[in-house]
Amino acid sequence: MPSCHRYSQAGRDCKRARRASANRVLTVLRAALNHAYREGNAKTDEAWRRVKPFNGTQAARVRYLSDEEARRLINACAPDFRAIVHAALLTGMRYGELSALQVKDVDITARIATVRHSKAGKPRTVILTDEATELLRQQMLGMSGGSLVLARADEQPWGKSHQHRPLRDACVHAAITPPISFHGLRHSFASRLAMRGVPMAVIAAALGNSEAICARHYAHLAPGYIADTVRLALGRLAEPTNSNLTQLRRSAV
């Protein structure tokens, strides 16, 4: 979990998340108290009416890298960290999923990787592009099935929070401002798909997320795709006419 230092972006995000959680609790509590008041179990509702929810708790717009920024970031990373950053940008996999990935989880022939323990609590399949397949193939040369594909230079696994400092340093060297979090690499993967018109259902499947979550994060990046889909689905309703009356097309009998 990222550091919650109050002056960092992660700290501001943590604070916003805590306040959003408090607002949700307040909503439920207020509903229960209002019910008690209506049922005559409370003399007044004045006390909780005075409590106001926190402002500014909406999540900030998703931060993602442009293709040029992504290339600069990859090149600025130390060699062992470069591989896991590159893999994140190519697959959208989470830090924990990548750091736990073993050789036996990758099928080079089928060009897929299996996440055995996902955030949703069930395995999922990750589609590998040609570039991602080649990256992982190079990483796995000479390794046995139980070896970690993306280990550190000392062959130890990347542990919890080990990614923060090298990623921060790489952002400085690559002039990535504001710096991006490792989870932002996952957003960058999804954003690249959205801006190329990939349907939200496909992006959701690639990430292992719900379509609703993906639409909330990435739909604004695909206005052209959304517009084209709406226009194609609806088609023409009536022919243009100079009359004030609109003549509807007759349906085929």
Average of the residue pLDDT scores:
84
> What's the end-to-end separation, in Å?
63 Å
Indicate the percent of residues in helices. Answer: 40-55%
Low-pLDDT ranges: 1-7
Name the strands of the widest sheet in spatial order: 1-2-3
Shape: extended
Biggest sheet architecture: 3 strands, antiparallel
* Helix-strand pattern: HHHHHEEEHHHHHH
Fraction in beta strands:
under 5%
> What's the CATH C level of the domain at 67-181?
Mainly Alpha
Specify the CATH architecture of the domain at 67-181. Orthogonal Bundle
CATH topology of the domain at 67-181: hpI Integrase, Chain A
Within CATH, the superfamily of the domain at 67-181 carries the name: Intergrase catalytic core
Q: Please state the CA-atom Rg, rounded to the nearest Å.
A: 25 Å
Q: Total number of β-strand segments? A: 3
Q: Which structural category do the helix and sheet elements fall into?
A: mainly alpha
Q: Please, how many helices?
A: 11
Can you put this structure into words, describing what you see?
The protein is mainly α and 253 residues long. Among the domains are: 1-60; 67-181, hpI Integrase, Chain A (Orthogonal Bundle). Helices cover 49% and strands 4% of the residues. The protein is built from eleven helices and three strands; from the N terminus they run αααααβββαααααα. The chain has helices at residues 9-38, 46-49, 67-76, 79-91, 95-99, 130-140, 164-173, 182-195, 200-207, 211-218, 223-234; strands at residues 106-107, 112-115, 124-127. Strands 1-2-3 form a three-stranded antiparallel β-sheet, with no helix packed on it. α4 (79-91) runs parallel beside α8 and α9 (200-207) crosses α10. The longest helix has 30 residues, at 9-38. This is Integrase. Keywords: DNA integration, DNA recombination. GO terms for molecular function: DNA binding.
